[in-house]
Amino acid sequence: MIQHPAAKNFPKNVDQALKNETLQGTLRQVSGGFVDSRATARANLPEFDSLRDAARYMKNHTLQHLDLYLEEFEQAAKNAGGHVHWAENAKDAQQIVLDICADTNAKIVSKGKSMVAEEIELNKALEENGYEVVETDLGEYIIQLRNETPSHIIAPAVHVNKKQIEQDFRIAHSHLDPDRSFVDSSSLVREARHVLREKYFLADVGITGANMLIAETGQSVIVTNEGNGDLTQSLARVHIVIASLEKVVPTLDDASTVLRLLARSATGQPITAYTTFSSGPRRASDPDGPEEYHVVLIDNGRSKMLGSDFQDVLRCIRCGACMNHCPVYQAVGGHAYGSVYPGPIGAVLTPALSGVEDNKHLPNASTFCGRCEAVCPMRIPLPKMMRHWREREFEQHLTPAAMRYGLRFWAFFAERPKLYHFCTRWANRVMHMSARGKGRFSYLPFASAWTRYRDMPAPEATTFQSQWAKNRK
Amino acid sequence: MPETEKDQQDTKNVGLFVTCLVDFFRPSIGWAAVKLLQDAGCTVDVPAAQTCCGQPAWNSGDRSAAQSLARKIIETFETYDYVVAPSGSCAATLKKDYPEMFADDADWSARAVALSTKTYELVSFLTDVLNVTRVKAEFPGDATYHDSCSGLRSLGIKDQPRQLLESVDGLRLLEMKDAEVCCGFGGTFCVKYSDISNVMVGNKSRNVETTHAPLLVAGDLGCLMNIKGKLAREGKNVEVRHVAEVLAGLTEAPGIGDQK
Ligand code: SF4
After folding, report:
1. Is A417's CB within 8 Å of B72's CB?
2. Which residue, A1, A210, B89, B211, could crosslink A243 as a Cys pair with Cβ 3.0–4.6 Å?
């Protein structure tokens, strides 16, 4: 059993990630691609930034009236013959899904990619209760075979390279010709498709997430590039949609605003290959579709965020642009965060969902370079919210003591300009002289974290303030 | 900031916020800033009561320390027409963070907002407020420019330094790959998460080297010390300077971290 990394061990996880040559190779290969495709997609749509404003406004409005829109959604979904369930936390959500599976006498459950399923650890609950879970998204399938968690919210297996997948497939698909060759990535896709198709037809229950829930129509929307979501939800007898509360948008038009931003921000596509609107169970006139349609609305900490410093993060449409553009994510990959949601979105969301104490590193592991906010289609001020978390940590004394006292020590001097300038003048002199004209230090005892990797430039002779004062005399 | 004709004729009384890093490590940048401002017709004062803008405390979650440092800065600088800093990062703290810091405090909020509206980063102040389009300086050779994060993304500084650098006699600007990507400094980040910071500054160093430019310039001393430190450690012989030094033509002193 592979030990999944935990957020509280972030520094250790980072160390391992940086030493893992295979991972580093894969990260280097993928990081530029997402960035370039998004830039092109954005350049090709002149109204991209005004769409972002519109989406932000729409979502803020929705969050302000979230209760009303959720009730509207519930009513519309029921009118279409669906069942709507409310889950306060992960346990409740698991239980609701387990109950539906039990009522269906299910044995095999197929699943489209869903981050909220990861959040509530649905697979574990299903497997512990004896169900076979078939992941239908290629990336999810790969990490299921590897017994790993997703390392990215839209590309769960982005940390795995082709050779590793090939090995995994040879082990897992032992019934196939062992001498077959995988010439390119599409041969891997073909094999996965072939193996998975067989299972789709056997599944009793199909579970998908939702990219959106539309209040006026009661529909749920998913986007995929493999079409696996459609098969998951229309071939099984029962379709369960699991979605967190903030996925609701008021109208079909609003959904289309989000759709125009989502794929462009995520992969740079104008739109994903498949966009599926589910409107309840199969009607008499429908050629296919599930007999039952359930929507599980999951709170799991969202309602607490409403009206807090962190409400804005509920605008997130899970496009992954923030992590694609994050230099920290690019350096260490998603697993190091030890959080279901890695990267900048996780640094804000995870402490809100599972407490800042266990996740205290996440909001700190950022230079506040601001690239995430600059690309976020929903204009979520991610660095500002990470800073809010740092403030909470400081208040709760979770900030390391050395840092806390260091800051106070520094502030003590900085608040006393005369003393400050006196001390800096002396410190400058000592440091300048000890550099002995070399211009820099290769080791400094009080800054070893710095000099471990880089030299420290030595200060020029005398501080600016003392030069200025002398000059004015 | 609306600029009337009359404003433009008046001499502008600028309070220079030197920043604690420049004060301590690289006074040359302070003098370059003074020269650039004076050449553009400003009177420059450097109030002695200034120390640090409080950004390290603010970004580390120590709100009360940040606020008390911010109050000092506001008191020290509110009498000037403009406050100018040779740093996008510190200027952004005064301009963007101070109003947020005092959002719940009516008295200080007004003062913070007033200070915010007249605070500028040096190069963008020259171009956007004083309408400087070229400088009288000379620097023979190629140079590459790193966009420091706060300046770029909080203050929209991108073309301004490039425009002025292009006007330096003999200087040719070569763009590096990922000029807009963070160098990994991030204030306390570079020591808190030094392993990650190392990867980031390593990438930056590689991108600088690939341009073959013998000179790297940027608008923030923190980034410059970080990048120079890495270049030097890797034995890459690149001169590193603050953009103000080059624009002011004050490049006689050895580059940052270099020997006399
Ligand atoms: S925070 Fe913004 S950029 Fe990140 S996943 Fe959410 S919507 Fe996308």
Report:
1. yes
2. A210
